[in-house]
Write a structure and sequence with these properties.
The chain is α/β, with parallel strands linked by helices. The chain is built from 16 helices and ten strands. β6, α6 and β7 form a beta-alpha-beta unit. It starts with a helix and ends with a helix.
Length: 333
């Protein structure tokens, strides 16, 4: 046991040294980098591979400098891409389907996938749980039409509960305020991403009861997209970006939660390292992260089915119209 702890400590030491060297090198040659502005839908352990790529310098190795902003919602991240405030957006894949079905000609294209399962967790005030307990109750579920809320509806139906008939879903609370609303007494349950779910369990007298990812299965969940105009003008940049992402996906798959936690901790400065590790372990057990950036057609079809069930997508979108896997396939060769 002592040897195992010593080995982990040594590994973490060398990881810190590597991170320091990479960061030092990048500071000396910023002018040589191609800058990319990314809008992420939220700041979450759910996006762990992205933070690994940034912390370990995988983007810098490809000659890229990332300017990361948090938009607080997939709809807002999409707006940033459509208005050219950002080059790339990391968000729920449903947003691209919405824009395409709405008739916009220069709809964004999905080119890399980050997560393959829903990463949110049902949190409640009790310790024991059965799906039937939700009957007559209310869940804070997120923005209507958003993939987290629609996945929740899908899972409820799978468990014999009709959304907004058997179970009430509150859609009028912003993503970053859902947790605080629940703590103030709103709702009987709340859907939370990590590390907030684990923090509530450890400090707020709440319990993580179920994983939506475990109950829904694989789905095209969080992806990177860019406008057709940007992709056409920056093909080499997108290839490099996707290659760096794949390096991070591979790194996450081959390292333990303790090592990953120390690498991404700078992106969660108000969260202690033990909680970050716990959140990573929980997400890892669900299997939320994609092994490669390739977007899977069957998983994309399930996303469309879920959106159609929720009444948000009126017609099915051709996979090949909104997905370009050439960059992801090249990165994995």
């Amino acid at each position: 046991m002592i040897f195992k702890k010593a080995k982990i400590t040594i590994n973490l030491f060398f990881l810190f040294i590597l991170t320091f060297i990479l960061c030092s090198c990048s500071d000396n040659s910023n002018n040589n980098y191609k800058k990319i502005k990314i809008s992420e839908a939220t700041r979450s352990i759910f996006y762990c591979p992205q933070y690994v790529a940034m912390s370990l310098g995988f983007f810098e190795e490809e000659g890229l400098k990332i300017d990361l902003v948090t938009s607080e919602g997939s709809d807002k991240a999409m707006t940033c891409v459509l208005s050219e405030q950002s080059d790339i957006a990391l968000m729920g894949s449903e947003m691209v389907a919405y824009v395409c079905s709405g008739g916009r000609e220069n709809f964004p294209i999905l080119f890399s996938q980050l997560t393959k399962k829903d990463g949110s967790f049902l949190v409640g005030r009790q310790s024991l749980f059965r799906w039937s307990d939700l009957k007559g109750k209310t869940i804070i579920g997120g923005r209507k039409g958003g993939l987290p809320e629609m996945t929740l509806e899908h899972v409820l139906r799978k468990n014999g509960l009709e959304p907004n008939v058997d179970v009430g879903i509150l859609n009028n609370i912003k993503l970053d305020l859902m947790g605080s609303a629940f703590l103030s007494g709103t709702g009987d349950y709340v859907m939370l991403f990590e590390p907030i779910a684990s923090s509530f369990e450890s400090t707020k007298n709440c319990n993580v009861l179920e994983s939506l990812g475990n109950n829904c299965g694989e789905i095209t969940y969080t992806c990177y997209c860019a406008s057709q105009k940007y992709l056409k003008k920056n093909k080499e940049t997108i290839e490099k970006f996707t290659r760096a992402l794949y390096k991070a996906q591979t790194w996450v798959r081959t390292h333990n939660s303790t090592e990953i936690a120390h690498i991404i901790s700078p992106y969660f400065v108000n969260t202690n390292i033990e909680l970050i590790e716990r959140a990573i372990l929980r997400c890892s057990k669900v299997g939320v992260w994609s092994e490669t950036p390739v977007v899977n057609k069957n998983a994309f079809d399930l996303m469309q089915q879920i959106a159609a069930e929720a009444g948000e997508l009126k017609q099915k979108i051709d996979f090949n119209k909104v997905v370009d896997n050439q960059y992801a396939l090249a990165a994995t060769m």
